[in-house]
Amino acid sequence: MTTLTADDLLYGYINGIFPMAEPDGTIYWYSPDPRAIIPIDSYKPHKSLRPVINKRTFEIRVDFDFEGVMHGCAGPRVQEDGTWISSDIIFAYTNLHKLGYAHSVEAYRENKLVGGLYGVSIGGVFFGESMFYSEANSSKVAFHYLIEILRANGYQLLDTQFINDNVLRYGAIEIPRTDYMERLKKALQLNRKFLLNPPQIPSSKHSAF
């Protein structure tokens, strides 16, 4: 498969699959077993990150430069030979963003994008896709605010696809695919909105501190 549409993405996510591109541009769909998720309620920021958050070292914006975040995530990485985020991937997710389903959480320093993440929001599920940083801690702070957004708006499932060292630092766990599909089905039935400042202020029991 070499073309990808926003409808393809929506169909894939609600059925538990997601796309990744090979170096030649060919796109394949994946549904790992086990599946990695990050429990929303149990996340806590590392102690070393708390001063960075409290000092507001980075300005956080949502959906201000979605495509810029995708290009940041598609950039070269020290420990990786290539990227699974092809131009077709960027095009399709940008269209999905225009439809209101894909979102980015962005960290800025002196009005410059220095880190962030993006993913897909359907019902009460956020499907985390990728993150990047050009300044230390920027993507970690963006993730912290992602969790705050998901908690404040009542999301039930944060999918992170594969387990790796990066998601492990945020508390990721693996669950059987059958368990994931059951959780996915229930969470998709919820009506949730991805808002940085929802009308209702979250109670103190949801604080990450």
TrEMBL record:
Entry keyword set: Acyltransferase, Cytoplasm, Transferase
Pfam families found in the cross-reference section: Leu_Phe_trans
GO molecular function: leucyl-tRNA--protein transferase activity
Coiled-coil stretches: none
Localization of this protein: Cytoplasm
Family in the record: Belongs to the L/F-transferase family.
Protein name listed in UniProt: Leucyl/phenylalanyl-tRNA--protein transferase
Species annotation: Dyadobacter frigoris
Higher taxonomy: Bacteria, Pseudomonadati, Bacteroidota, Cytophagia, Cytophagales
Gene this chain is encoded by: aat
